[in-house]
Specification:
InterPro entries: CysQ/Inositol_MonoPase (IPR050725), Inositol_monoP_metal-BS (IPR020583), Inositol_monophosphatase-like (IPR000760). The chain is an alpha/beta fold. The chain has helices at 12-31, 37-59, 91-94, 156-164, 174-182, 197-209, 242-249, and strands spanning 64-67, 81-89, 103-110, 113-121, 126-129, 145-149, 167-171, 188-191, 213-215, 234-237. It is 34% helix and 22% strand. The strands form 2 sheets. Strands 1-2-3-4-5 form a 5-stranded mixed beta sheet, with helices on both faces. Strands 7-6-8-10-9 form a 5-stranded mixed beta sheet, with helices on both faces.
């Protein structure tokens, strides 16, 4: 986990990783307080939001923020730099210790593009960020492995299994699924069940830095800092699988 100096790192890549790690540390503290169920979920959301808001206010005071856990300030639409954050991605998984498949997302949108981002996996003490993420490793032999939700896999999953002979690998939050593609644990993550910008911004930034394909399921670009932050679908996959996956997801 990155060091936590008194002052935040100066460059945006390092700041994203540092802030995500700090929020992750705070979430581990909350998880150790003995709360359960809804109380634990709510306490985690509040604690991570409060910490990230404070860090951004102190160290990136001139930037706008879009967060799942804060009221949307539409002034961000005229801002040059916007931090898109999900203080606790995978609240359900967080509330079920000792599960590890939950995350913290911190991304920077700048002038129309995602320019920096980090996804912390606090229960493992790991952070993947745009500063130093390694290229995705070579694909393992065998059928494509597809990350899916443990409880709500999208209907398009059946089509992908039929067309690609894919193996399904259930796991938790959106960030964790994307990191699984980055790390070569799976080969693709295809989602079509509804998400928002904060669900995918940081993971997508990291995936792009690792050389992976990212798009919507119709092949169009993922566009951030929109008036309506709904961004309901995405594909993150190894480049060599892009054509095969799009052939299924764009089928009439």
């Amino acid at each position: 986990m990155p060091n936590t100096p008194a002052d935040a790192p100066l460059d945006d890549h390092s700041f994203a990783a540092w802030a995500a790690a700090r929020a992750g540390e705070r979430l581990l503290e909350v998880r150790a307080e003995g709360l359960q169920g809804r109380e634990l979920k709510d306490a985690g959301d509040r604690a991570a939001q409060d910490l990230l808001a404070a860090l951004l206010a102190e160290h990136r005071s001139g930037d706008a923020v879009l967060s799942e856990e804060a009221e949307d300030d539409t002034a961000r639409l005229d801002a040059r730099r916007v931090w898109i954050i999900d203080p606790l991605d995978g609240t359900r998984e967080f509330s079920e210790p000792p599960r590890e498949d939950w995350a913290v997302h911190v991304a920077l949108w700048e002038g129309g593009e995602l320019t920096a981002g980090a996804v912390a996996q606090p229960a493992l003490g790991e952070v993947a960020g745009t500063a130093d993420v390694a290229p995705a490793p070579e694909r393992a032999p065998g059928p494509p492995r597809l990350a899916v939700s443990r409880s709500r896999p999208p209907a398009i999953t059946d089509d992908l299994v039929a067309a690609l002979g894919a193996e399904l690998v259930p796991m938790g939050s959106a960030g964790i699924k994307v990191l699984a593609v980055v790390r070569g644990v799976v080969d693709a993550y295809v989602h079509a069940g509804g998400q928002y910008e904060w669900d995918s911004a940081a993971p997508v930034a990291v995936a792009r830095a690792a050389g992976l394909h990212t798009s919507r399921i119709d092949g169009s670009p993922l566009i951030y800092n929109q008036p309506n932050p709904l961004l309901p679908d995405l594909i993150v996959c190894r480049p060599e699988l892009t054509e095969q996956i799009l052939a299924v997801t764009t089928r009439p």
